[in-house]
Amino acid sequence: xxxxxxxxxxxxxxxxxxxxxxxxxxxxxxxxxxxxxxxxxxxxxxxxxxxxxxxxxxxxxxxxxxxxxxxxxxxxxxxxxxxxxxxxxxxxxxxxxxxxxxxxxxxxxxxxxxxxxxxxxxxxxxxxxxxxxxxxxxxxxxxxxxxxxxxxxxxxxxxxxxxxxxxxxxxxxxxxxxxxx
Length: 181
What we know:
There is one protein chain. The chain is of the alpha+beta class. It is built from five helices and five strands, in the order βββααββααα.
């Protein structure tokens, strides 16, 4: 397994790639810290522990789908950390109450989390396609990138069509929009 960092809303999200299952796993505490705007890791960890207890009490399978893998912490040591794949993170994003009084997540506020998930899907798809094509040159890798990005775009569009709501908005995009000629 290879671990690394993804940057999301100027915060680090620890992640690990399992080559055997070809899956990216993200630190749940790191995601919760961003979603709930917690000031530090310990507060986010306590929030996640309370949320896990609540979800278990409700009979949610979300917690069951989280696993523990060793990720590098700020002190440079590896510790077991709750992680989740992209599909589980999508459900987690919807389970985290927003700061609003209604207590329901506002999907527009979660656009950055969806952006992170769909970016991971595009990266994984691109890698898999490039390997299957045995891509070696710029043109082949560019084609793999376009196809991998297309898979993530299709998944986003299907989710938006199913929910009737935009999940990635212009304000959550990492890059500025491309100007049309």
